[in-house]
Amino acid sequence: MLLEDIKQATQNFNNDNCIGRGGFGRVYKGNLQDGDGFKTIVAKRLDSRFGQGEQQFLSELQILLDFKHESVIGLVGFCDENDEKIIIYEYASKGSLDRYLNDASLTWGKRLDICIDVAIALDFLHGGVGKQAKVIHRDIKTANILLNDDWKAKLADFGLSLVSPLVKETDYVIDHVCGTTGYLDPLYRKSGFLTIESDIYSFGVVLFEILCGRSTFEIQKHEGHYLPEFIEKSFKEGKHGEVVFEQIREQIVPKSLITFQEVAYKCLHLDREKRPTTKKVLMQLKKALVFQNMASTMNQFAHLQIPLEDVAKATNNFHHDNIIEHGGVGIAYKGRLLWSGRLMEIAARRFDCKHGDGDLEFLAEISALSDLKHKNLVSIIGFCDEINEKIIVTTYEANGSLGQYLNSLNLTWKQRLRICLGVARALSYLHYDKGRDYAILHCNINSNTILLDDNWEAKLSGFEFSIKQSVNDKDQVCPCEHTGTLGCVDPAIEKMGGVTHKSDIYSFGVFLFETLCGRKAVIQNEADRSLAQMAKYGYENGPLHDIIDLHLLNQILSPQSLLIYSKVAYSCLKEDRADRPNMHYIMAKLEKALELQLRGENIVRLFFLF
């Protein structure tokens, strides 16, 4: 951009337009000519006398060009003219976060949203998300977190940042330690060794500043030491609650506070290896927000609440004779419930609080099932959240789960194809429904979460680990704590750090082979070798017939049907997520496989008639 245009925008760098200053120089607000109108911008004017030279200038520009994200400040342009080096950013109208730390109008909910935005930015920078490099910011602090009109946070100021190949595991060695005192990783400050965990430490300081409503500098002024030491001392003395900003203390739900403090405290661990990853931090911050919003969220579903007394009566007081399933997050009971004037057969899943509090899984399932309506999804009747009991009540599916019929001689190949097609339709609806602005990632597809009604129609269940994702982010990786059932889990999760809709595709591919081979995903007595490994080997090296249930093989009356089915099942198991098909494609192929099987059966029927 022309220097003259920037001068005009900032009124020749008028002091009245100066909105910040630091080791790099000064920052100015301005109005830049943009077509027929004006755009408000921020101009960072670097001053070489303060140590920011050509290298830092080019480095920041390169990072902002290569790592564009909604939670990273946007680059408008730059100027390199007449010894002037200026970077032009988008304008964040509310300025930097440090100005609002002790602002009582910044509620705990808003503070959590800001923390999550910054964690998303860091996760993007540290993981690359498709890039072949990672960025270490090196100066995470509240002054470098900018806020727009909607309080959306954007991470800024990459003048000290470093870029490293994703595959490089070695630490950086920096001769001259950079950053801001009070936020610096102690190990980096002492040794000069820098890793992404140094950013995690600084972010931990930011998290506690947001919680305490005080900057690390203010704490140093009054307490004689910076925030990390203050937090360490307070926690050792058991004063966890006293560090919280008094203006927001009453707003915070206890579980939200505990979750937040636990992850923030781990960020400040002196041992880098014990600090959480950005994905873990992000996951815990989202959990803290869910806990904070849980009461208001549950109020949305008040019409679905069923008294505990009614559920207990329906299941004969949860009698062991009524148990229809063990596993997952609890025990499912069959019952007969009088509800809304009707006597109906129900399944009541009683969450087991011994395996964690179950709040998040409970809420995820209620939220998913109450919003989603499809003939191949299990239907919710209601729920109970009373006296430490968490129970979800759904329609009873008479034939139970598919898992118990995998090796059954009575479940024909035609029925299996129809079941697979039903599940494919359910997943297609979850991933791509035109009427919703979000997708649902199921995250637990396996033969036990597929229920069968009295007509052997498939009903997908088990939404306790499901994730809601904006359609605009459908290719983004979602961090997750629970990755599914052994043998059905997408192996790319560990490498990529989370799930996408293609993780459901992998699990669905395992399920397709379970259905074809008549055996579970993990094969006992074969060194616990997974069915996915066997199926891939059989498909690639042949013959696949060796692992297909012989009884089923004799029922497959169209070789082309088997070819189409096995090919699409195999493609779901591709190691690279980009090579896996989407549900529309899978659904079309299964429809064709069923059509060919039915045609084969008709030919055989006609043959015997004549």
TrEMBL record:
SMART domains: S_TKc. GO terms for biological process: defense response to oomycetes. It is found in: Cell membrane. One of its GO terms (cellular component) is plasma membrane. Keywords: ATP-binding, Cell membrane, Glycoprotein, Kinase, Membrane, Nucleotide-binding, Receptor, Serine/threonine-protein kinase, Signal, Transferase, Transmembrane, Transmembrane helix. GO terms for molecular function: ATP binding; protein serine/threonine kinase activity; transmembrane receptor protein tyrosine kinase activity. ATP binds at residue 44. InterPro entries: ANXUR1/2-like, Kinase-like_dom_sf, Prot_kinase_dom, Protein_kinase_ATP_BS, Ser-Thr/Tyr_kinase_cat_dom, Ser/Thr_kinase_AS. It comes from the Eukaryota. The keyword Calcium does not apply. It is a single-pass type I membrane protein. The keyword Kinase applies. In the C-terminal section; belongs to the protein kinase superfamily. Ser/Thr protein kinase family. This is Putative serine/threonine/dual specificity protein kinase, catalytic domain-containing protein. It comes from Helianthus annuus (Common sunflower).
